[in-house]
Amino acid sequence: MGLRLLAISFCLIWIGIAFIVLGLNAIISFSLPVGTFPFYVGALLIFLGLFLIVIGVCYIISEFR
To answer: Are the CB atoms for 14 and 57 separated by under 8 Å?
Structure first.
């Protein structure tokens, strides 16, 4: 089970990085003003990406503990 959990955690980290890049790209490219719905969607993508990265790192730490 160790190698499978490690692969899943790396996938979570890369998906989290992709979500952060998509959220930042949406906010920067379209110069979205704060308070609009698309701005909040971009911010939600960023926070979801951070959450996935934290979960992936926790899986890696628990694997080597």
So the answer is: no
Q: What is the largest CA-CA distance in the chain?
A: 46
- Cα–Cα distances in angstroms (integers) from residue 37 to residues 1, 13, 19, 27, 29, in the given order: 42, 26, 17, 11, 15
Provide the token pair at 54: 């934290």
Q: Where are the domains of the chain?
A: 2-8+16-64
The pLDDT-based confidence of 29 (bands split at 50, 70, 90) is confident
Residue position matching structure tokens 């951070």:
50
Q: Where are the alpha helices (DSSP H) in the chain?
A: 2-29, 37-64
